[in-house]
Each structure stands twice: as C-alpha cells, then as structure tokens.
Amino acid sequence: MAQQTKQIPVSSIILDEDIYPRKGINHRRVGIFSENIRDGFKFDPIEVEPCPDKPGWYRLLEWAHRWSAFKSTGVEEVKAIIKNLDGNDPLLYAAAKAIGPKQLTEDEAKDTARRAYSGNTSLTSTDIGKAIGRSRQTVDLYLTDLRAVNQMDRDIKIFRLNRLGIPQDRMAKRLGLDQKTIHYHLGKMPMLANSLNGDLTRGFTVAQVAQKHSWTEPMVWSLALEGKNDHDRFKELGWGYCTWDKWEWNDCDKRFGDDWPGRIPAQMIAHILRCFSKPDDLILDPMAGGGVTPDTCLAMGRRCWAFDLMDRPETRPEIEPFHWDISSDQGLLWPVSAKGKPDLIIFDPPYFDKKAADYYKKSISGLSRKAYLEFLEAFFVLLKQNVKKTTRMAFINADWRDFQNKPAIEEKYKGGILLDDYLDVLKKAGWYHTHIIQAPMSSQRFNAGVVSAMQKKNILGVISRYVIVLGQEC
Q: Would the CA dihedral through 60, 62, 68, 71 be positive or negative?
C-alpha cells in the first residue's frame, strides 16, 4: 500500500462512521490525550486516506481519539500518514488498527464483521476474523443470516436471468461468479420455485406470493402463467386485447418496469409480443431503460436480452450495461458475441429532445436533430447485420414538433422529426414497414393549467405515438 507523510489541516479530516469500527468516541480517552498535548507530548502521525468523494478531504483510519483531542485543544495542523489502500477494505483496515490499543467489544466486532460483509460479500470469514481479532468460526456465527439472505438473493437473480434466456457465460460475468457456480445454482432452480408454486396452488395472489418470498411480481407471473397460451395470459393479467391497429391506455401497468422517464405501458409491449412473436422467442431490447420489456417477457413466456447505459446490477441484473457509441473509432459495435440471434427487436429509444434533462447525460435524446437521425440510421444498419433474415423490429416513437408556446399556424417543418423522417431512415437502412399502429400517449399528462394556456394560444400538443413494425424484405 502506497503512503506519504505530511502536515495536513485538522479541519480537513473527518470521522467517517461507515469505516469506523467502534460504537463511538471514549471521551475519557480524549481527555487524557488532550492533557498530553497541552504538556507538549509528541504523538506518532495519525493515519488517514483521501475521501473517495470529497477532493481535499481525508477520513481517519487510525487514532480517532487523538484526532478528537487535537480538535478540542485547537491544534490546526497535524502530521499524517496518507494511505492508498489499493482496494483493501477500509473498514477492516481500520478495525485491524483499532484492536492494537484496545480489543473491539463483542458488539463492535459483530457489527464490523456484518458491515464489512454487507459491503463486500466476497470477503472470507478468515479475512474478516484477522481484522477484528476473532476466529473464523466466530465470524461464521456473526454472518449466518446475512449469508443466507445473500445466497437467496443470488439464487433469485440466477433464476431471473435463466428465465430470460441469458447464457451462462454472461450470467457469470454479470454476477461476478464462475460458470461452475452458475451451473450448480441452476440445478437448484426447480426447488426454488416449489414453495412459490405451492402458495399459488393454495390460492395466494401473485402480489401476496411476491411479497412473501421477496420476488418481483413479473417473476412470480412467469411461474403462475407457465404453460398458458397468450390469450389466457392476457386474461390472467387483466389486459383486454386490442384487435385493431389503435392501442390506447390511460396509464402504465405499474406491476411492470420501474418509474422511469418516458416509461411505456407493459400492455403495449404485451400486444407487440402477442402479435409479432411466439412463446420462447428471443426478444432484444437495446435501450431497456426501466425494464418494462424484460418484465413483460417474463409474464409472456419470452426470452429477452436487454441492454442500457445505466448499470443497476442489484435491482436490474438482467439489463446488461452497454453504450451504443457512434463516436468511437470503430463505429457502433454489437454488445455480445453469441450464437443466439433475436426473433424480434423492441426498440423504444429516448425520444428526441423530450425529457432530455431527465435521461443519462450520454443519452441520444440530447443530440442535435441531424446527429439523432444519423445515429438511428447507423443503428438500424447494425441491427440488420446481426439478426436473422426473418427478424422483425417494433420501433416505438412519436412525432416531435417544437410546439411549446407557438400557435399551430406558425409551426414550420424545419426542426421537427415526424413519422415520415423515421420511415425514410429505416428504408435507407433496409427495413420495410408492414404495420403502423397508433399507440397514443394519454392526454392526462397535460394538467388543466397547461391545457388552458394551450387553448388560449391555439397551441396543438403532441400525444401521437406509433409502433412501426418492420421486416427486411420489401
């Protein structure tokens, strides 16, 4: 571990409770150290590390009581050893230092062990025991319940990824495990589902089973609807089937997907799946956002590979992080090397300019009109190169007009992106539409005050949205 020693301001040092192994400061010890300082006693340097999220600040690794004494006696600068822990756990490092002058109490040792393990589940009992001055067996007892929860959490993630058809090598990479471990856990999947299926058989609702077993509702739906056809799945989920080419809902089904900018109704995704795919087909969602598509695929019995800029490994392990970066020297790249190719692509990109401030800063929503359309064209070409000849695409988007504060009669074509523009780009890339389905957004998103202002100025708002379904043959 690299280190340097220098004088630093006492005011730049903080006591970070996240890496402090004791239950508090012993003020009697602080008082003794304060007397020593006034008597001119010289102490060894205190140990600190740079704060990871506060440049110019340091957090204590050792000698918290001496630091408190320095503050109380008005010392402005102290000699400090500034450590770079090179990936070592700072809590365990501080704990190992703390047991030198005074052994950690039983409560402090247990609390430190549990906090360290919660922060890094790959830590062994031996590693933790050495730091806190306890045996491996004692640490095992401290962590029994946490390990059981972690084990169950891991099994649930593997179950989810497996249901969505994600290959074992990608599961292993995503969860930080080796493939042998993944293979072992996959063998436990039938047993994992038994207790949930038992509760469903006894008449518990999907929501009740999900809450009882700490599963998401879409995962429980994947069990409850197993073996049913699409018609029966819709019926069980309470979704009416829209036979015509206009699909309209007042709100999103909140059982599916996260609260997310531009969230789309799961009912829309389910209609696309029912009309343009078959059970067990592989669905690709290249910009998965809040996860509506993979959630709906679970309920509809489809496999799904999903990717997004935002990485949420704990809550959304099935959405693999990937940046479709058109600016790289190699141009757009395909995210995985795999034999499997999607049967259907569901592409609901961040819409041009809409909610650009709410999306991740690298979102395509913030591009210029020209760059936005250039990205789409390159993206559609890349899709064509990496899918089957029979693969279909459902492209979801809306007209964009700069209607804000502008009467309808004053709007010009320049600057807008309309359905025609998307169709032109798609055709250039070799995709030809078979269906244009209206799926308007709810007008309820405009509140009464906004509607009144629009009416006074003859502003024509936008609630249009389309599902353009395409294939690769004319």
A: negative
